[in-house]
Amino acid sequence: MGSDQRIVRCARVSFGRDEKVDPERDKRLIRFLFRHRHASPFEHNVIAFEGSKRDWLNILEKLSIPTVQIYYSGGYIWVNLRNAINSLEHLPEKIFEQVKKSFPATWSIVERKGEISDEELSEVPYTTDRVFLQERIETSSGWIGLVDKLELGTDMDYYTFIVECPLFVARQWHRHRFGSYNEISRRYTAYDIKFYIPEVLRKQAKTNKQASVDEPVEEPYHSEFLEEIKRIIKESHSLYERMTEKEVAKELARGVLPQFMKTRYYWTVPRASLDNFITLRTHEGAQKEIREFAQAIREMVGYKGTDKKSRL
Ligand SMILES: Cc1cc2nc3c(=O)[nH]c(=O)nc-3n(C[C@H](O)[C@H](O)[C@H](O)COP(=O)(O)OP(=O)(O)OC[C@H]3O[C@@H](n4cnc5c(N)ncnc54)[C@H](O)[C@@H]3O)c2cc1C
């Protein structure tokens, strides 16, 4: 699952330009990422190959880097490209072949330890994603798109999504640690700043201190607060723009942007963690905005119940 371009997309989301394709620049970006060990964008490519539990344990036994993660599930050994690069010498020959074929530009860079000239790079092939998004679902606070999936009927089948949601939803989402994330960086870019404005200001629940009830606060407060929210968002955005125009660093100026601001990230996640997300975040105790995303995921790729195998 993935391509040379997948690395670039997940790196370029930092400045919100992940849809652009320019093979020459893209290959140079992969080289830059490799040389500077900006490794997380490599994690959104996943390789699965047939093997027994014994084959898997044999690979694990040989590993000398304690952080390398290689998984076994349903007769397949699963490894993402970052971990594959860190354990290449212990993986079967056929995996080298698969890496070379699926990620030819990346492989050329890795093989030469990043020491590859622009001229040499221009000669190597570059693989791209088949489509930008396979499917997209809107929610009340943003949208989610399915980029890719590798489904072999195991607990470790992999999925990559793009999510655009308010900051407070992202904060909840990123607590789901078993998966990989690459997110827009508001240190880099002031591009495409958007805000979620809820249609309904729900009331605080009386029985659950964390929750809301599906009932708007009374008028005239509802209308007044909504107007005030819009005004504050407009004012804080305008202050942000004035500050950045006068060269205040974006990494500081962003401090005035409210939590209603939207962020955008790639999320690559195995089925076991995805099912755990769906269970926890479709539950009525979860916040409505994230619940809608969990329901959208369920609609797109289903729920297989793999998380129920864990006791805790
Ligand atoms: C309604 C609700 C309210 C919440 N409130 C709060 C809150 O107030 N404050 C707060 O901080 N968080 C809160 N959370 C977040 C919650 O505590 C979890 O961090 C979050 O739901 C991610 O769940 P997870 O750890 O199972 O998922 P992941 O981190 O994606 O992990 C997936 C699975 O991998 C395994 N795993 C991953 N990392 C480890 C590890 N280090 N050790 C052992 N096993 C691991 C576990 O089997 C786990 O189920 C809330 C969540 C919900 C749904």
Keywords:
single chain, about 300 residues, alpha+beta, 3-stranded antiparallel sheet, 12 helices, about 20% strand, binds flavin-adenine dinucleotide
List the helices and strands and how they pair.
Elements: H1 4-12, H2 23-35, E1 46-50, H3 53-62, E2 71-73, E3 76-80, H4 81-85, H5 93-102, H6 104-111, H7 118-123, E4 135-138, E5 143-150, E6 158-166, H8 167-173, E7 180-183, E8 202-204, E9 212-216, H9 221-245, H10 250-253, E10 262-270, H11 271-282, H12 288-301
Antiparallel strand pairs: 1-3, 2-3, 4-5, 5-6, 6-10, 7-10, 8-9
Bound molecules: flavin-adenine dinucleotide.
Flavin-adenine dinucleotide (FAD) binds at residues 175-178, 273, 276, 280, 285-286, 310.
Choose one word for the global shape. Answer: globular
Q: Identify low-pLDDT runs.
A: none
Tell me, rounded to a whole number, the average pLDDT.
96
Spell out which ligands are present: flavin-adenine dinucleotide
Architecture of the largest domain in CATH? 2-Layer Sandwich
What class would the helix/strand composition place it in? alpha+beta
Note the total helix count.
12
Number of domains: 2
Q: Would you report the number of β strands?
A: 10
Report the β-strand fraction as a percent range. 15-25%
